[in-house]
Amino acid sequence: MALNIASGSTSHSAYNLRSTHSDVVERHTLAIIVDNEPGVLARVIGLFSGRGYNIESLTVAETDHQGHLSRITIVTAGTSQIIDQIEAQLGRIVSVREVHDLTAEGPAVERELALLKVGGTGDLRVEALRLADVFRARVVDSTLSSFVFEITGTPEKVDAFADLMRPLGLQEIARTGVAALSRGLKTG
Predict the structure, then answer these.
(1) DSSP 45-57
(2) Does 187 fall in a domain?
(3) Is the same domain home to 116 and 84?
(4) ACT domain spans which residues (predicted)?
(5) Range of the domain at 160
(6) Total structural domains within the chain
(7) What is the pLDDT of residues 103-150, one digit of tens each?
(8) What angle do CA 49, 52, 57 make, to 5 degrees?
(9) DSSP conformational letter for 72
């Protein structure tokens, strides 16, 4: 918005020198459709590392066997200007077919799978099983001294479960990273 000094009113102007981008750092989930060929993932990751952008989560898999297309889902954080730059730079990579900012495009469904190894005996073991039930985590392996739990949900749910398992004997955790789809009929 520019201030019209003569009338004291505000109006939209192409000469407005103020930034239209927010300086607030926000988490964004990007869905990138790429040709499934050697080196594509390295080029995408190289774009992030070469410019100092952090990747909080990364998943990739072939999603169209006949069309030889893969979907890369990246969770990153930045100001709206940085996210716009990332999208534009990704779009210039030859093997990239589509780039979608699922966060900006509207509601999306995000899920992550994690395996957590929790050691313990006695009351700690009973408490770990009780909490797993509350979080709908499944026991996928059990020994006399440990469990391996499988949990699926939002990254926040996985974090909360892991935080509760730490004092009960959390020994190891493996996470898949975020898989995400936009809600409704639109693709992304």
Answers:
(1) HHHHHHTT--EEE
(2) no
(3) no
(4) 29-104
(5) 108-182
(6) 2
(7) 999 999 999 999 999 999 999 999 999 999 999 999 999 999 999 999
(8) 65
(9) E
Whether the CB-CB separation of 140 and 148 falls below 8 Å is answered with: yes
- Return the biggest CA–CA distance within the chain: 81
Q: What's the pLDDT band for 22 if we cut at 50, 70, 90?
A: low
Query: What is the CATH classification number for the domain harbouring 147?
Result: 3.30.70.1150
Q: Give 104-154 as a DSSP string.
A: HHS-EEEEEEEEEEEE--THHHHHHHHHHHHTTPEEEEE-SSEEEEEEEE-
Q: Model pTM?
A: 0.79
Residue 33 resides in a domain: yes
Residue 18 token pair: 């103020």
Report the length, in residues, of the chain. Answer: 188
Last residue of a domain, one of 105, 131, 165: 105
Q: Is residue 7 part of a domain?
A: no
